[in-house]
Specification:
Layout lengths: L6 H47 L3 H10 L11 H28 L5 H10 L20
Helix pairs in contact: 1-2, 1-3
């Protein structure tokens, strides 16, 4: 464990964390995809009912049979895509980022940002206090 990692290590570890933050955003988009797809499926159900009531049973049946409840990928609904992403790529990425932090910064997070804060703040001014470096999360 590096007590005081050098600038190159801090920058490299910062990039690993930046990548995880991007993965977090991608995961959020994946959940949005899941929820939006589910909402569309429910709207199609309502559309099929309305079409049937309006005398368009053929279109209602076609929508019901071809689109409602359909897999978005072979053998998978969106919740299954989300679960596979969470249980595989996301979990592994997050775990490795924590291992890198523990090994190279003693578990301290956002050291690159802490250095940036120190460089950019106006020393001695209110609301520009240094604060301490981030601490390892509990259980890390």
């Amino acid at each position: 464990m590096a007590e005081n990692p050098g600038p190159a290590t801090v920058e490299a570890v910062g990039k690993v964390t930046e990548a995880l933050e991007t993965i977090e955003r991608a995961r959020g988009h994946l959940y949005a995809f899941h929820q939006l797809t589910g909402s569309a499926d429910l709207a199609l159900g309502e559309a099929a009912e309305l079409l049937a009531k309006a005398g368009h049973a053929d279109w209602a049946q076609r929508i019901s049979e071809e689109l409602i409840g359909r897999n978005v990928l072979p053998d998978r609904w969106t919740f299954q895509v989300v679960e596979e992403y969470d249980d595989g790529y996301y979990k592994d990425h997050r775990s490795l980022e924590r291992e890198v932090l523990q090994a190279l910064t003693g578990g301290r997070r956002h050291l690159h940002e802490q250095q940036m804060k120190d460089d950019r703040r106006t020393h001695g001014r209110p609301d520009h206090e240094a604060g301490g470096p981030s601490t390892p999360p509990s259980g890390a």
